[in-house]
Amino acid sequence: MSGAEPKTVIQAFFDTAARRGGAPCARFKRDGRWRSLSWEEMSCGVLRLAEELIDRGVRHGERIALLGSTSVEWTMADCAILAAGAVCVPIYLQLTAEQIAHILRDSRPKLLFAEEGAMGKLSAAMKISSQEIPVLPLERVLADASGPRVGPPVGRDVMAVVADLEMRDEATIVYTSGTTGVQKGVVLTHGNLAAEIRGARRAFDFGDDDVGLAFLPLAHVLGRMMQFYSLSQGCETAYAEGIAELPRNYVEVRPHFLCAVPRMLEKVHELVEARVRELPAPAGALFRWALSTGKQRSSLLQKHRRVPAWLFLKAAVADMLVFRRVRKRLGGRMRAYICGGAPLSEDVARFFHAAGIMVLEGWGLTETFAAVTVNRSDDFHFGTVGKPLSGAELDIAPDGEILVRGALVFKEYLNLPGETRAAFDERGFFRTGDLGEISRDGFLRITGRKKDIIITAGGKNVAPQMIEGMLSRSPYVNHAMVCGDGRKY
């Protein structure tokens, strides 16, 4: 990194904790009541846990698996693993015992953090993989980290380990399904993580006074990228209780931003539309007028054009009469959704923007530790996935495949040298498997997936995602799959 920027995300966390001190860092619910950890408490807890790992014999480069749901304990364990110089292997909680066994066989972790509810599945996975791995209860992390301590000052040895970490050192191995369905371990270095977070910090404008609501699985790169973004940027993170409690958590936490997948936004949009249909005719007409006004304003802002005074006043009235109520259900302070993982309907994005909430849609892969491109609050184009993050270089192959090169691109697939070589072209660009096109002003539009291309009887290549997306806009269609290989239409 340039200047005085830290070279790893774990160093960035400790630097931010030292700057923020007693300010709130993490908020979580226990026994029906919201509790909080300051940055100082969070930092101290991570240091203590890292010391425990080192005391247990964990050495630089050894792997520690992490199996659990999104929680403050997950974040503390993740940070402690990195601070101890080890490599974190996150495991998605919903995987089967057979899938978990494959990850354990492939990565060979020295230790494993797991939450109590996963112990049965984990035991079955260890039997399948013929391994006995020491398990540390994830629920104990918070209590152990904050408990009384006797001995020398905490963290002295750990900070020496953190200072010695190099950009080329492995930081995490995240498993992703390949074209054959067999999970591959994507090896990401400290340099990869640092490059991604550096790009995200330049793309997003959240700060010390902003609160993010963590909801997505931290075993996936999108949620985990936002975890490290907040820990580096100084934002407070509130951990949602679950999908059923999300509407209540919105109101209780009053977040400024949230990382989401398109289906979450589509459900909010569908719920609003359903309630509008139930309104009396005058109220329904008022909502449609407000939405039309908001979309007019949104269109001008996207084109970087000035909003005329008459439209500015209309939009203010629409906001006061209609959209303020919509935002109130989301806590009243929501400024932006960071969205990725699948294509988002342009209509849904425009609806939220009309209501005063920006949707920052992006695109990326496990192999790039989440985002490669993203829309910015001051530079966006709905229907696209934005412009590249700083340090990411894009190219489009002759067949339309998107190619990526830069410091955020992964090191290798674990134990798969052949697949690693095949994943890169002769210039060092990573072959993403996604198809796309770049507009004259630099915005990337995803047009399909290379392996999903339909070849008709006439030899024409058709990307089915565009058609499937149009079908899915219908309130009567939840999922759509377009077929046509070998047909004349």
Describe this structure in words.
- The protein is of the alpha/beta class.
- The strands form 5 sheets. A 9-stranded mixed sheet has the order 2-1-10-9-11-12-13-14-15, with helices on both faces. Strands 4-3-5-6 form a 4-stranded parallel sheet, sandwiched between helices.
- It is built from 16 helices and 22 strands.
- Helix 1 packs across helix 9 and helix 12 packs across helix 13.
- The protein is globular, with a radius of gyration of 23 Å.
Please state the average pLDDT score.
92
Low-pLDDT residue intervals, each spanning 5 or more residues: none
Number of strands: 22
- Main sheet? 9 strands, mixed
CA-based shape: globular
Number of helices: 16
User: What class, by secondary structure content?
Assistant: alpha/beta
Sheet-strand content, in percent, reads 15-25%
- Could you estimate the helical fraction of the residues in percent? 40-55%
Terminal-residue CA separation: 52 Å
Spatial extent as radius of gyration: 23 Å
